[in-house]
Write the structure tokens for this entry.
Amino acid sequence: MNSAASADKTTKNPSELSLGWKVLMASLVGVAFGASPLPFNTIGFFIDPLQHEFGWSRTEISLGVTIYGMLAAFLAPVFGWLADRYGVRPVALASLAIFGVTFASFAIIPGQLWAFYLVWLMIGLFGIGSTPVTWSRAVNLWFFKQRGLALGITLVGTSISAMILPFLTTQFISEFGWRSSFALLSLLPLLIALPIGLLWFREPRPEERPEGIGSAAAGSLPGRTLGEAMREPRFWILWLSVAIVTLAYAGALVHLPSMLRARNFEPSSIATVLSVFGLSIFAGRIITGLLLDRFWAPLVTLPILCLPAFSCWLLMGDAPLSFQIAISAAFLMGFAAGAETDLVAYLAGRYFGMKSYGQIYGVQYMAFGLMAALSPTLYGWVRDTAGSYDPMLLAAAAMFVIGGSMLLLLGPYPDFGRATTAPSPSAK
């Protein structure tokens, strides 16, 4: 009798994972092959071929990523608003499709910089909806008690990209040339992520939402509006922390192949190091996600975000670099990168609620996008002018420590569990 009652209770109250695993998997693949990780994990391998064929400098090539990142950063709140207003499914899937087609067009660019920059401009205009700005909104609505783990699993998509894309890109360029490689890489969003998203990706109906999200009966979502959130000091503390940490590590990721090549690493060894970077992002996201569900987030991430300062020290200098040291530097930096990106999506929901999550996370993502856009060009400029990456690596080490320490000022989480607001458009 008791066994039957227990089974009945389990049937009536399924776990968050049992309800939302399909959405979680679709979000993971969407993140993996969307406009956030795919360009950043591949463009470093195209710098030398583009420089050899067209004579462009590292700074000129890196500027393409900057154009994309700057535009995407300013449009992130717009796409967040679209997801809040019209539902996340059409925004994410349409953006993913357009991004895939646009990325493929690198294969046919002529030898003029304006054409190269035009493609980056188009990716910035339409690709931002295929980043965590959209995927994380759906995951936040399906999960509450296991939100840290769920977001960690979702954002593991970027580490999957970091693990497989270096090998794929290196192999494609070696076998088919750089032009065909762009076209082949575009098949990842178009033939893998998009079909899975069409099958499995959606927001929950009100009755499917877990406790703590809002009133299932009214279909309401609790939390701050964007204006309310922006009037709180912790909104800008989080924004500045994200900006500082991203400025430090985004350019390091893009230029890591060049750093290692200058230390006499072969392409296959560089791909291995970059894959370890991706593996460490995987570990950072899962471990951090589990800890976020149990402990106060800023205290969890402070020591993790200080780890890359040691990586910067390891990568400085001109002396021969051992393979083991390169692996260690990549692992520490990747572990922190995984924790930091996971943290932004988690804290946006915990500190400001889900009422205007898309817009709020979009503005927070703006900090990530702007600095991710500026950082590769800054690293390239320092290398071109100083003849070494060392001055930038020294500055980055300080930024990791400062950015991580700022999160201690955020304070305790607000309680939105009993709040009520207007119904979510996607729940209509």
